[in-house]
Amino acid sequence: MPTLFDPISFGSIHAKNRVVMAPLTRARAGQDGVPTPIMAEYYTQRSNAGLIISEATGISRQGLGWINAPGIWTKEQIEGWKPVTQAVHAQGGKIVCQLWHMGRLVHSSVTGEQPVAPSPSTAPGGIHTYDGKKPYEESRALNVEEIQVIVEQYAQAARNAMEAGFDGVQIHAANGYLIDTFLRDGTNYRSDDYGGTVENRLRLLREVTESVVKAIGGEHVGVRLSPNGEVQGVIDSKPETVFVPAAKMLQELGIAWLELRESSPESTFAFDKPTEQPKLSPEIRKVFQRPLVLNQDYTAEEAKAAVSEGKADAISFGRRYISNPDLVHRLENDLPLQDDDMGTWYGAHLGAKGYTDYPTATS
Length: 363
Ligand SMILES: Cc1cc2nc3c(=O)[nH]c(=O)nc-3n(C[C@H](O)[C@H](O)[C@H](O)COP(=O)(O)O)c2cc1C
What we know:
alpha/beta, single chain, 12 helices, two-stranded antiparallel ribbon
């Protein structure tokens, strides 16, 4: 069995090790969604990862409601990403762009329109806007013509990502955002072709994946799912009936790799409710034969064991990569890991603080 530090291919991406940087929204882009120069420094510091998954990146204004998060739908955004991808490549790293439509988890003051979802619903809690924190607003149901526009926007965003120099894309189908709200029966009450049966609830994921694969080739495409538990108010009553078929479908559609963010009763991830719903990765591994990346709450020991025991092909780290830019070096040498500071997770006003100023073990 391989170790966490052995190379692996994610489709066309030849990764030097199996330590993946999980997607992390850090909100250091401009209000126009254009990446800023400090983002190139931040990702370069972390280019020791076999693969970097970028922070979630909006495919359209409608789909991007997180303040100071980047986008990939305008010419300026594409140009803004180029120094990031070039800098990562110059260090021998690989980076894919996580394609994001936030669905109901936006605020109209940022997107300019009412949030959209499979069905009308309101997420619990609130969201940061440029005018302070506001409660979530009720979403409206997308019609079929609008869904087709969004499917094409994913494909165009994928083409844009390749133009910006990314090695591929990851379709964000996790964490309560648009695609996830279609997948789960807690937020999808539709009675047309996009709701009701499992096949219908998988339809948006199928169409988005098909269009992205057609646009840039399956060897450049990964998908992220969060099969179990409740995140940001989104839950399914029988996740195994949705997510195991979803993984099988993704295998058939020819994507190169799949990442699962799996929750547990001991979850320490801020957006999660700890859950008793079992992890589905053992079942998903049986139906998805290409590289499987597992995520959430992995310690160094657990990550090494999961890969060497064949439970996963790679492990992605989120919070550990925020505070340990040299994570691979630390894991390989059993060095202590630094803790992150939640107060500096997000915020263009913070600049380098909590972003590019975490020391390496040798600095
Ligand atoms: C500050 C922060 C930002 C995050 N942003 C994203 C994101 O943009 N896209 C995404 O899919 N997950 C996002 N996540 C979830 C992480 O990718 C990851 O699933 C989570 O942190 C659990 O992994 P960990 O235990 O290794 O931190 C974010 C998490 C944190 C802490």
